[in-house]
């Protein structure tokens, strides 16, 4: 048998599992793994400035190519710094393996330097958290870590490596090893038949595509079903991009925040909803009595415990999204020829044409919808976008178009500030082999930008170009909006001097470039400049757009009670 250092075996496993890039920060307790990365080769490593940044980079990498992202840190605070990233990946079903160093196993009970029980800390926000106890287990622990991260509902795993165990020699031959087999979650045929019966019986059905459709690569199968049965399709925020928003069958997004007026209207008129890979998040449903109404629900999810978690569906189906949709299409073809559009599709089309929101504002300060109008017109469907949490996430969900799966990346349930810069790095690195010239764009807020701004140094050091478009209202805008019912505007204004923090100078301090825009007519020119500048410099470029300071996004407690704050199309502004 072949003998090698345990960590060399780990690196061989990582490579065979499809890992070509890792994001991390070396420290004393994790150096055996770094020595193996150097000796074995084949994995590019980017040295981050903060371990949370490493997790978000691995997250963006995994969301883009469907692989398992890898983040590395040392012992103690390195692991605790990763918890936000693990939580984000757990919440959004992102496969990831985080590797932490640890003090020697004989010292863990003695409060040794940077010895913390990271396994117990990480357990609630991972699918599996484990400490390596025996060196000979190393390759098999990592095989199981990758299987666990991928199988069923994907998610993160943490593997903790005590220093003394990581330094040992083991027997392992990578030439005769391979990833562990995954077990597909097939739908039970009678439930597929019942779902089809319910769809065909409905007069006004909708398909609701959640993030599970993207994860399972089910976009083509979704389109086939929708077009064959002529059923309009809505997406959740996590499902954005699963269905082309220019399709005549696209019926928008329902919700109390990231939604369209026509999306809510279409949903309220529907009599059946086939939800595939969606978890009925509270910002989507709002008040459940309104959301449920008299309509029937079919809920399809790969995770059995999701069924009935928020409310009991009329029919539950445990299945991988793609396998369910393919089975549904196959059975539909047996029942008869493809159906024509019908009155319901025409009705959804009328709602779409009648119930829009304005974007053509020419006033200054710039109104946020105008920025998204410029984004939609400037970038093609093949562009990759990342965005995080705040008013700009809501405006993005309402106004920005997405056409392709895995091209609109958003942190949904956890909503960590600062996700965009490291995620954009991960997205860009994920494309280095398949589409190295693809454009990556991060849409950020001024506050979120500063949470992980240090990761700009990573992008500059490793020549990772992308465009950042900042909507800067010099406020904690979402919290200011949330304070309105309290009659407050307290501790949310972060304005000082002329513009507050000079974000263009921050970019320059990291060796990058940027421009500030204050007039709506200058937004498009600045975007065009930034795209060329990112390509020229191979570094991030910022377009800082100064928007109206106290603008509000449409929102409300229920999908039939969303308040509009801006003039609607046809109204006089």
Quick synopsis:
The protein is α/β, with parallel strands linked by helices and 573 residues long.
Structure notes:
The chain is α/β, with parallel strands linked by helices and 573 residues long. It contains 24 helices and 19 strands. The protein has a 6-stranded parallel sheet, sandwiched between helices. Strands 15-14-16-17-19-18 form a 6-stranded parallel sheet, sandwiched between helices. Helix 1 (6-16) packs parallel to helix 7, helix 17 (368-378) crosses helix 18 (391-399) and helix 17 (368-378) crosses helix 24 (523-537). The chain starts with a strand and ends in a 27-residue tail after the last strand. Pfam families: TPP_enzyme_C (PF02775), TPP_enzyme_M (PF00205), TPP_enzyme_N (PF02776).
What portion of residues is helical? 25-40%
What's the main sheet like? 6 strands, parallel
Shape: globular
Strand order of the largest sheet: 3-2-4-5-7-6
Q: Helix segment count? A: 24
For the termini, the CA-CA separation is 77 Å
């Amino acid at each position: 048998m072949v003998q090698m250092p345990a960590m060399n075996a780990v690196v061989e496993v990582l490579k065979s599992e499809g890992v070509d890039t890792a994001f991390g920060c070396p420290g004393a307790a994790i150096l055996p793994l770094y020595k193996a990365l150097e000796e074995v080769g084949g994995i590019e490593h980017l040295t981050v400035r903060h371990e949370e940044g490493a997790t978000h980079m691995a997250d963006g990498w995994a969301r883009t190519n469907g692989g398992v992202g890898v983040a590395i840190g040392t012992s103690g605070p390195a692991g605790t710094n990763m918890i936000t990233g693990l939580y984000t990946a757990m919440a959004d079903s992102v496969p990831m393996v985080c590797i932490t160093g640890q003090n020697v196993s004989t010292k863990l009970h003695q409060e040794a330097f940077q010895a913390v029980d990271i396994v117990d800390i990480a357990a609630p926000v991972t699918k599996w958290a484990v400490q390596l106890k025996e060196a000979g287990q190393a390759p098999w622990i990592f095989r199981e870590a990758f299987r666990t991260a991928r199988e069923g509902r994907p998610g993160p795993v943490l593997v903790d490596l005590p220093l003394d165990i990581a330094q040992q020699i083991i027997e392992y031959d990578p030439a005769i090893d391979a990833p562990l087999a995954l077990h597909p979650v097939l739908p039970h045929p009678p439930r597929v038949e019942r779902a089809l019966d319910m769809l065909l019986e409905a007069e006004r059905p909708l398909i609701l595509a959640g993030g599970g459709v993207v994860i399972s690569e089910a976009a083509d199968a979704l389109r086939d079903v929708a077009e064959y049965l002529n059923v309009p399709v809505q997406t959740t925020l996590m499902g954005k991009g699963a269905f082309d928003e220019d399709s005549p069958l696209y019926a928008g997004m329902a919700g109390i925040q990231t939604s369209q007026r026509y999306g809510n209207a279409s949903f309220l008129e529907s009599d059946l909803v086939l939800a595939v890979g969606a978890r009925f998040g509270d910002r989507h449903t709002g008040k459940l009595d309104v959301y449920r109404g008299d309509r029937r629900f079919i809920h399809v999810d790969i995770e059995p415990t999701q069924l009935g978690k928020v409310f009991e569906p009329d029919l539950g189906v445990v299945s991988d999204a793609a396998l369910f949709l393919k089975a549904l299409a196959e059975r539909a073809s047996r029942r008869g020829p493809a159906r024509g559009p019908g009155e319901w599709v025409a009705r959804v089309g009328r709602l779409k044409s009648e119930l829009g929101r304005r974007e053509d504002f020419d006033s200054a300060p710039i109104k946020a919808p105008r920025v998204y109008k410029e984004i939609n017109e400037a970038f093609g469907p093949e562009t990759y976008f990342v965005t995080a949490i705040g008013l700009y996430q809501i405006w993005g969900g309402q106004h920005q178009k997405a056409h392709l799966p895995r091209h609109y990346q958003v942190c949904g349930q956890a909503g960590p500030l600062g996700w965009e810069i490291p995620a954009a790095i991960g997205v860009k690195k994920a494309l280095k082999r398949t589409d190295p010239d693809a454009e990556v764009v991060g849409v950020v807020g001024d506050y979120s930008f500063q949470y992980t701004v240090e990761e700009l140094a990573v992008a500059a050091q490793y020549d990772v170009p992308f465009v950042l478009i900042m909507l800067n209202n010099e406020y904690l805008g979402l919290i200011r909006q949330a304070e309105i019912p309290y009659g407050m505007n307290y501790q949310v204004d972060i304005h000082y001097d002329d513009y507050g923090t000079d974000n263009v100078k921050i970019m320059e301090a990291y060796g990058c470039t940027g421009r500030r825009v204050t007039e709506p007519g200058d937004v498009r020119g600045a975007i065009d400049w930034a795209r060329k500048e990112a390509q020229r410099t191979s570094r991030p470029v910022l377009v800082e757009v100064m928007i109206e300071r106290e603008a509000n996004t449409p929102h409300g407690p229920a999908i039939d009670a969303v308040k509009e704050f801006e003039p609607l199309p046809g109204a006089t502004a």
